[in-house]
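LOG
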Amino acid sequence: MLYDHGICFVTVGTTKFEALIHEILSPSSQKALQALGISKLIIQYGAMEKPSFIPIRSLSIEIFNFEPNISKRYLSADLIISHAGAGTVLEVSRLQKHHIIVGNPLLMDNHQIELMEAMHSRGHCIGVASASALRKIFGDTDILSKDILQLKPRPKCRESALFDELLDLIG
């Protein structure tokens, strides 16, 4: 088990990313998170309608659409699963948290996939192209645990320099 009574925070920002939320709330994803040692799942579901779900035993789930200060959620989490929005990626990167970034292929200008791929190629996150790809990595939690442990935290730097680097990565 990677975490001991860990907290996983899932965020989609201010957009709709129904595929990610539905995948996270599926029984198989809940079981995978539990196998990683997650005991509390907190989901910020954004602009979509409030999802319905059935929690599996021994996994506490809290959901909400928006919150004025989401930084405290990042700080309390052991694992963060998010969309690839630049603001979210910047904040999680700054905090040096374990991070799984999920691309949203439905976006027209898909700079998020480019950002996710750039962070993944540097070893700063686990990047997956879609919510269905997330299901695949959840299929083997032993390999996923090893991959998470191999993530490299971003070096501490001025936030403006990091933002400039992110802009360079996405062109």
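LOG (cont.) second protein
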Amino acid sequence: MQGLRRCSDDIVRLDLTSLSSPSSSGGGGGGGGPQPPPPSSSSSSMLSIDVAESAEARIRRLISEHPVIIFSRSSCCMCHVMKKLLATIGVHPTVIELDDHEIAALPSDDSDSGSPQPRNPAAPSVFIGGTCIGGLESLVALHLSGQLVTKLVQVGALWV
């Protein structure tokens, strides 16, 4: 499963760029490179990679498969704050770290969909229930307004 590396207990590094040749499971190969460790058994959902999928399609699929997902750059302190805020509420989001060239594959907000200007996707970006909430500032604003818990309950990420 090339392109997927576990960075820590709660962050998965996903390489969304196309792979030159898909790895075969099981049989033969002499490849010599070390295989990534298998995902931990404590993970509640698995991340799957289809090498034929484009980066945009993978991101859209991941958004639809996870009630709360954060797309971030490596070592992003704002992502850490987002995770801590959500963890204090009782939600543990899926976090995907993207390279700078992969950030462009993030879907934009619905609010600027009619804009003819090129978009500049921000990272970290949090998606709740398939909807882009935005970055840290938007997440904190949602929390301070009292709407974050309601939204998390609606998408099934939190039970009260």
